[in-house]
Amino acid sequence: MRLLGALGALSFAGQLLLSCGVAGAQSLSELQALAKKDGDSLARLDIEAFMKNVVPESKNYAVVVQLTALSPKYKCKPCVELDKTLRTVARGWNRHGDKDQIVFASMDVEDGEELFHKMKIEQIPRLMVFPAGAGPHALANASPREMSLKEETMTPEGMSAKLGSLLGVAIKPDIPVNYGKYLRMTLAVQAAGAGAYLAYKLVNLRMLGRNLWAIATIMFVLLMTSGFMWNKINDPPYMGQAKGGEVALFVPTNNQQFAVETQIVAVTYAVCALCIVILVRHAPKIQSADQRTFITLLFVAVLMLMFSYLNSVFRLKMPGYPFKLLLE
Amino acid sequence: MVKKVLGLTVADQASLLRIAILGLISLVAIGSRLYSVIRFESVIHEFDPWFNYRTTRYLVNNGFDKFWNWFDETAWYPLGRVVGGTLYPGIMVTSATIYNALHLLNIPVDIRNVCVFLAPAFSALTAIATYHLGKEVKNATAGLLAAAFMGVAPGYISRSVAGSYDNEGIAIFLLVFTFFLWLRSVRLGSALYGALTALSYFYMVSAWGGYVFIINLVPLHVFALLAMGRFSNRLYVAYSTFYVIGTLASMQIPFVGFQPTFTSEHMAALGVFGLIQLVAFASFARTLVPENHFRVLLRGAVVSLFVVGLSGLVLLTMSGVIAPWTGRFYSLWDTGYAKIHIPIIASVSEHQPTAWPNFFFDLNMLIWLLPAGIYFSFRELSDNHVFLILYSIFAAYFASVMVRLILTLTPIVCVLAGVAMSHVFETYLNFRDVPPSSPVKASAVSSAAPAADKAQRAADTVSDDVAVEDTDSASGHKKRGKGAKKSAAKAAEAATDTSADGAATPSTPAPNELSPGLKRFYTIFPKFVVMSCFMFLLCMFQWHCSWITSTAYSSPSVVLSSRGPDGSTFIIDDFREAYYWLRKNTKPDAKVLSWWDYGYQLAGMADRTTLVDNNTWNNTHIATVGKIMASDEDTAYELARRHDVDYVLVVFGAMLGYSGDDINKFLWMVRIAQGVYPDDIKEEAFYNQQGRYAISDDASPAMRNSLMHKLSYYRFAEVMGGRGTDKVRGQKLPTSVTLDNFEEAYTTENWMVRIYKVKDLDNLGRSHHAASKF
Prior knowledge:
Oligomer: heterodimer
Structural class of chain B: mainly alpha
CATH superfamily of the largest domain in chain A: Glutaredoxin
Mean pLDDT of chain A: 81
Number of domains of chain B: 3
Helix content of chain B: 55-70%
Strand content of chain A: 5-15%
Number of helices of chain B: 34
Number of domains of chain A: 2
Shape of chain A: elongated
Number of strands of chain A: 7
Low-confidence stretches of chain B: 435-510
Number of helices of chain A: 11
CATH class of the largest domain in chain A: Alpha Beta
Strand order of the largest sheet of chain A: 1-3-2-4-5
Low-confidence stretches of chain A: 1-11, 13-24
Strand content of chain B: under 5%
Largest sheet of chain A: 5 strands, mixed
Shape of chain B: globular
CATH topology of the largest domain in chain A: Glutaredoxin
């Protein structure tokens, strides 16, 4: 959990003051100069700037700081997400809000590893708010606090609402318009249109149509019945790792799954259905008796094997399930 | 050809067999739903059924008029609830009718037993309706298989065990039956069947909110047929009859009212109704205008009308004339919607998306017979098959988004699985097609084979002959494969009989001469292997269904059971103990506050006034209750007194390890309260310093001071000797829990339900804290 109570934040700031003891006059203009260097007005801090301009409670402006590790070598995915969201909020504030009231800043582990170590910060990213302690925007309790990073506060709207209510202002995020997406969509629509037109002109739809529709329908139904939407909504990892370090394809619980499970299960279902179709439509039409017998038995065997596999996987997912087929 | 047995022709024998098999299927369907009654007792289950049961009792005791105008002042205190106008009365009226009919015949049945056994009884009807649906789309074999599947599929049993007296119990029967009538009315173009469809639809509307599925799927079917260029007068008659009568009838239900005229859920039906009138006019105009002119006219008209209609619909929706989709339906399309906007919908576990084991759990092998069934439907693609395909697409999507909608997927899976399985049976169960000994006969058979292709078996005697065989094999489903062996033996005897039916296997004379015995072996052996495999699969399906039903779906949840280490069963009956305590020991007008989950049970079993219940129509009121639970003792006392609360009831599982207790639901209460009172209740305050949801001494102050925490753990550590652990959460118990404004009134045997009395104001006007210190 990334949550840290208000108490934690308090002791954190206290430690900062005690351990560093820096108490020079804080300066808004220094922060703003740093912010100007950045395209989204997100001031990149080092230890000195942090100690001097952010920590003191007597300052007359508020600072919102992310403690993060953006360098690719740390492979911190939530850091990148937080950074992206914070930048939209910072841009929005810069455009619509009072730049002298709130400054958005970022503290990377590369610039302040020493500080991170000293403060025993083990979990990143974190989003800290250092409210103003003096001046017109001062808060009664100017001690720094941490904003919990939950699903709804990781969206630009959620974060600005939360920050706004914390600091008593209205913040409007500046969400970039995704032109690329629109362009891609237009192109895709055009391509689809052109494809449809060409298909209409060149291909005998009456012949092709039914099979195409059948394949599309069956694929859709297979995806749906093997948990595709669950993956889409819950976004699980593609596959997992077992205790020994080898790859685990299945979560051993009933209501969880890896993304790869959907693919495996959908393919297994498809093979089973295919066996039935071949057994009914194709096998009986084979002329030679030997071949017919062979094909029939082959596909029955495949069907039984596939279903046994499904069954064994289901036993794995549901301990205590008493029935088994060929496989354990 | 016609052999008479006991004076019955082959056709009569076949229909007799069919009836017998359907009867057996019905028996199995009812029987497998009775585990809960046998293990526990004839009791109403869960939560919503208690409301249905209570209203049914009211209907039986007070008559229909009073029921219709019932204003229930004991629910949602102090708001009350207009019961007659806010429920689907179908299930209550059904039970009351059955009850009255039985009493008319001097059969004195208790209304509770009528309610408990209603869902199993209707499941038998569902199986029969599924048989007719299967027969409508293929033949009797497919119908019987589909009925057998439907009778035992856990996806449907989950909602229809004895005691689960809920709308779905009768609604699935109505769903299947309406679809069957619809398909028949399209096939026959009969206004009579169209009207019957509408009546069945009306019954469905009166029974379940899921009727929206019908009123969207049927127009979609019509639209798809129109788009495929399959307009016919049959379709026109069927749909026009159905839509007009069905819509007018559905508006008679007060809860539905004028919705069919202005909500988005019903617009597709209206639009298609308009469209089919235009298409009908066009096809009439076609008889008057030259062909080539007409084509251009038609295409232009259809496209422009569709565009105009759709944009008009969008415009009207956006301007607010047509009500937008309600939250529940909207969350089906935009899957992230409920999570952000309607926590009360997202908080219900059955509204979560479905992982694949759930499908396998509920449908087992049917789930991979479904794609095969879709394939066979595409091979034939009559009007009926278009419907099956559309149904399977939409039901599959909905089921994958919401666990509970596996229920609507189950019928189509059963029907299509029945179709697929019947194809297998028809191909491999025909053991009579042994290559005949003389070449003359061989040529006769092979020339007859294409004519008697299995899809177009029209000749009565032949098809019935086949039906006998097939039904026999369907019953083998229960006879555990004995039937297959028997018919194999029979087939071997009758090998010389060269009836010209269903010869799917070509019988060409092999170039190198085989002995007749070897030839027969070549034909029979693979068939025998295939059939025994499938018989085994069917048996396994039945075992699976019984096991799932018995282990997963037969717990009443009002009464619980647990097993001791020596295998002995303990029945845990704390809920009823608490409710009966309330019923017997409190004033009849006492107000009991609890979380909404227990509202219906309180009203049904304790017969006391509740503040909120499972009809979650008023979010603010629920949030107020959440706020009372989440506030500190003094605030809660103040609020509780303002709402005239006499008793507070909490469910507490730490003693037994019952994980569905209020402390585990508490975060949802906090979230819902926070949605309405963001200034007073904050979710973060309920996590401790480490950001965990703790209950013991390291819990956050807000958590430790909250009413819910105090009521749950009051005196619990004392009883456990001070060192016990919370069995649900695996944490240490909080040591000092004080309670001044509430006093413990009753705690059940296993501490699962705790009831507290809200203290009266102090006689001397002191606060209760001061009084207790004194």
